[in-house]
UniProtKB/TrEMBL annotation:
This is Unannotated protein. The keyword Transmembrane helix applies. The chain crosses the membrane at residues 124-143, 199-216, 222-242, 271-291, 311-332, 338-359, 380-404, 410-431, 443-463, 475-494. The lineage of its organism: unclassified sequences, metagenomes, ecological metagenomes. Keywords: Membrane, Transmembrane, Transmembrane helix. It comes from freshwater metagenome.
């Protein structure tokens, strides 16, 4: 921060000075790749007409973006250094109306070492948009139209041969230990594909992935982020988690155990990194399946209904994994050059999810006509989330914001605002009742587009304000909180209106929660 203010003073002085600056007067700043950096100018009536560029010795230039004019006459010039920029010395050059070109600062571009996402607006906006899509979708899921989840299940194999039977009993017993919830329902449901392909593999894979996760943990240093986790093994674990989320879950347990005994888990940030890795290996498979199911309940044109649910669900799964990668690197515990997370694995995962959805559909399309025994598994979720889930979300979101901003007060306020829409999902209100909502229909894709558009508009406006990058990052987080709060309140009112004439839901059904 002191470097930025110092640079701002020198640039302002150079712009109004009659005597050209000498080489000895030019400061050299150190900027990291991938981050946004700011220069604040003011005290000159022509500042709004200035243009600033970052220039290399071979003539390559990068323009600074100019903010709105502050009421006090200040302008913030911002630049995000691309990851592909070569390391080295660059110059900051200013031009303006009736003002000759001047070199006002030197900049040393270095590799990224402190991956603070609040200083990387594009990545921060991506994470916040994903959070908006997920929480707003959960708010919509409370509607009677979406609360019933069901699937066809072939009669399970009674006994497997030899050691495979022991593995199968271990898997069944482990899943049974989970409390009745949406998570448990999806874990069982998503294991159906693997069971249909090979019951022996279905029984064995969770055991094998415990050792796979442990091997990855022993051969990668979580403390330095995703970049030093073995790339191929990291991708394999993620793909396994898409095919069978329970095996992804056991891989995450093995990874966490290996990281712990190797001494890499020494702080809260390390624990948050472990959780982020687990999210990347479990959540894409579970949530993409959930999206695909509820999107099929909306009415589209026949052509669109064949593709929209599958494509949106696959994209959401890949996006969740990308966010998990970004979170893992944002909790890095040690200052050292790190590589920014690749987009390759999320793209591979998106394709894998799409293939999984279509393969499963092909395997079960004629199940009810084959004469084989099958079950219809049904889950009704009047209450989408449980108190323990909301408590976990509150702590994790608060910890994340604190790591980014280093402000405990802001982290607490942000976490409360972000989890309020989730808390609203725990209860149903009998009022208010708005007649117009009683027969109105809601469509998840349309609402997602509208909410994302509103968020983009607010994000774009915030990016144009005369604020430095950390202050803009805080405003982005707060705007996300308000968007989610208003949508959560709207969903609660809509739900109470739509259920005004319905019978009360039995208490034992209400206990089904995530």
């Amino acid at each position: 921060m002191l470097n930025k203010l110092f640079a701002a003073f020198l640039i302002a002085f150079a712009a109004i000075s009659i005597t050209p600056a000498s080489a000895a007067d030019i400061p050299v700043l150190t900027w990291e790749k991938g981050k946004e950096h700011n220069i604040i100018l003011g005290g000159n009536s022509q500042v709004k007409d200035w243009k600033i560029q970052l220039t290399s010795s071979n003539g390559e230039t990068l323009d600074f973006k100019q903010s709105k004019l502050d009421p006090k006459g200040y302008v913030v010039f911002s630049i995000q250094i691309p990851d592909s920029f070569e390391s080295g010395i660059y110059t900051v050059v200013t031009t303006g109306i009736n003002m000759p070109e001047k070199i006002v600062a030197g900049v040393k571009i270095v590799n990224l070492s402190d991956y603070n996402l609040i200083q990387v607006p594009t990545k921060l906006i991506l994470i916040l948009l994903t959070l908006i899509l997920l929480i707003s979708t959960l708010s919509i899921m409370r509607m009677q139209k979406y609360e019933r989840i069901e699937y066809l299940r072939a009669k399970p194999t009674e006994n497997l041969s030899g050691i495979f039977n022991l593995f199968a009993k271990f898997r069944v017993a482990a899943v049974e230990e989970l409390h009745k919830s949406l998570f448990k329902f999806q874990i069982v449901r998503e294991g159906e594909l693997l069971h249909k392909l090979s019951p022996n593999l279905w029984a064995t894979l969770p055991i094998a992935t415990i050792f796979l996760g442990a091997y990855i943990g022993l051969n990668g240093r979580l403390i330095l982020g995703v970049s030093l986790i073995p790339f191929v093994l990291y991708a394999i674990a993620a793909i396994i988690g898409v095919i069978d989320p329970f095996s992804g879950f056991t891989a995450a347990l093995g990874f966490a155990f290996a990281q712990s005994i190797s001494g890499n888990v020494t702080s809260v940030r390390s624990v948050m990194s472990l959780i982020a890795v687990g999210i990347g290996w479990v959540a894409p498979g579970i949530l993409s399946s959930l999206y695909q199911d509820i999107l099929h309940k909306d009415n589209y044109f026949h052509f669109a209904k064949k593709f929209v649910p599958d494509l949106v669900a696959s994209a959401i799964g890949g996006l969740i994994f990308l966010v998990a990668q970004l979170l893992t690197n944002s909790f890095v515990d040690q200052v050292a050059p790190i590589a920014v997370s690749t987009y390759l694995i999320p793209l591979i995962l998106t394709v894998a999810i799409w293939a999984r959805i279509n393969l499963y559909r092909y395997l079960v399309k004629d199940l009810h006509q084959t004469g084989k025994n099958y079950q219809i598994r049904i889950l009704v979720l009047p209450r989408v989330l449980s108190p323990r889930t909301i408590t976990f979300a509150f702590l994790y979101l608060g910890g994340t914001v604190y790591v980014w901003t280093e402000s405990l007060q802001f982290a607490m306020v942000s976490s409360i605002l972000l989890t309020t829409p989730l808390a609203l999902l725990m209860v149903r209100f009998e009022s208010p009742v708005i007649k117009a909502f009683k027969s109105a229909q809601r469509y998840i894709v349309i609402e997602m587009v509208c909410i994302a558009t509103a968020a983009f508009i607010s994000f774009f406006y915030i990016q144009s304000l005369p604020l430095e990058v950390t202050a803009k990052g805080k405003l982005l987080i707060l705007s996300t909180s308000f968007v989610l709060f208003f949508h959560g309140f709207f969903s609660s009112v809509f739900d109470s209106s739509a259920r005004a004439n319905n019978l009360q839901v039995p208490q034992e059904v209400r206990q089904m929660a995530l």
